[in-house]
Amino acid sequence: MDGMTSKKNVFVIGATNRPEQLDNALCRPGRLDTLVYVPLPDEPSRVGILKAQLRKTPVAPDVDIEYIASKTNGFSGADLGFITQRAVKLAIKQSIALDIERRKEREAAGEDVDMDEDLEDPVPELTKAHFEEAMASARRSVTDVEIRRYEAFAQSMKSSGGGAFFKFPEGGEPAAAGTGGFGDAGNDDSLYD
What we know:
The chain has about 190 residues and is mostly helical. Helices cover about 40% and strands about 0% of the residues. The protein contains five helices and no strands. Helix 1 (about 45-55) packs parallel to helix 3 (about 75-110) and helix 3 packs across helix 4 (about 130-135). The longest helix is centred in the middle third of the chain and has 32 residues, at about 75-110.
């Protein structure tokens, strides 16, 4: 990362699920200056993630995305992606099986089996059954122990900065810590709260 001063608008962004293994040199000033702890999604976030993942997928009107989100506490975005992808794969498998069955029936009746262009999709949308089966094999990929480890790391990074107690003396007397005049604007780097 040294020598990037001549480049403008270059941002180096890294992500890890093993922050304790970061080399301390990466966390020095001028390197990765801002560390952001991204917690697991809360329920409204899970609703948004599910809706985003299903935005181009036809879903039956009786499928309650909010209910799925309420039952997936502790799931990551990737875990939710597994559920939606699994539901889609189940629907595709069902569609193929029904199409094969329909072809066999047409073949047995002596009809032309190559005239399938006009037939509608036997599984036009994801149903509750697809999601129920997908949820049966879903699991959380981040354990409670790992969450506590991430939160402890975030807290240690937040409290490791020694500049939080620095104040110029006013009128010969040291000022009390935390009495800055910036309001919330001076709190930009506190991304762990």
